[in-house]
Amino acid sequence: MHRDLRNVDLNLLIVLNALAEEQHLTKAAEKLHMSQPAVSNALSRLRSLFDDELFVRAPKGMRPTPKAKALQEPIRQALGLIQEQFTPRETFDYTTAKHHFCISVNGYAEFVVLPPMMRGLRAIAPNITLDICPESDARSPELLRTGEIDLAMDYIEIAGKDFIKEPFYSEELVVVTTKNHPKIKGPVDLELYKALPHVAVRPRNHRGSHTEIVLGRKQIKRKVVMSVSDLISLPAIAAQTDLICTLNKRLAHYFAKTLPIDIHALPFDTEAVPVYMYYHRDKQKDPAHTWLREQIKRVSKIN
Fold it and tell me: CA-CA distance, 62 to 30, in Å (whole number)?
């Protein structure tokens, strides 16, 4: 099939891209700020142009045909290249810029990542201000889309085709107990780990904490006698009771400097817990946002 581009309405490709991303006529129309009949008409023209149905009805919207799937990525890339030419290539001078960022973080990232990050920013970018929001919840996708938050740090996935997920560090888990725990005479084995009472973080969004996710994969059940809202309190509780906890390694070693605790290896092999930055794809090439992500990754590597 050959078409002279002079006879092709390239706006149709924008509609095709939106339909491929949303796979729903009404949602694509909302995204494009078009009426549903207008999008339906554009789809008819696309079908004629490519001599293919492109999208067929499905229980929850529209299902792309193999032809539509093959077209999706090349068209998305082409539209991105065109859009770049209309986007001013700005630079971000962090030494003088007065810029405000809103970041959503979990308790661990707020405790481990933000203090050294802010110390660095005060030295090189004194006019940058940060607003730290509670860890991501059911509203996070909406807040990222509207720009109310610039970035979210979390180990729980934020679903959506509009978001970019970028890993920036991973963390090992360890067992934390009070100093010289009376029932621990050596390494903590799996039988003892299951038998001892635990303090744990209450599940969030019905999805569990990172520890619950890891232990769930291993099908390991603990004897949890106390649940708390934030993992920052875990080592303090373990230090003053016979309860043990499973904690991020860096956080455990930090508190070991000030609390009477012992740190033990987990009695089973497990992968490190990845933590991600989530942000809307509209922010991907924004100079200020790119700079912010670089600062977060830099601090996470050296901290």
Answer: 15
Residues 219-237 as b/e (b if ≥16 CB within 10 A, e otherwise) read ebebeeeeeeeebbebbbb
CATH number of 5-85: 3.40.1550.10, 1.20.1730.10, 1.10.10.10, 3.40.50.880?
Answer: 1.10.10.10
> Would the pTM of this model clear 0.85, i.e. be above it?
no
Residues 56-61: what's their mean pLDDT? 88
* Among 253, 290, 294, 280, residue whose Cα is nearest residue 146: 280
CATH number of 173-271: 3.40.190.10
Sign of CA dihedral 211, 217, 219, 220: negative
What residues does 129 pair with on adjacent strands? Answer: 100
> What pLDDT digit, counting tens, does each position of 144-170 carry?
888 889 999 887 778 788 899 988 888
Domains 100-167+274-302 and 173-271 agree in fold: yes
Closest to 154 measured CA to CA, from 181, 146, 143: 143
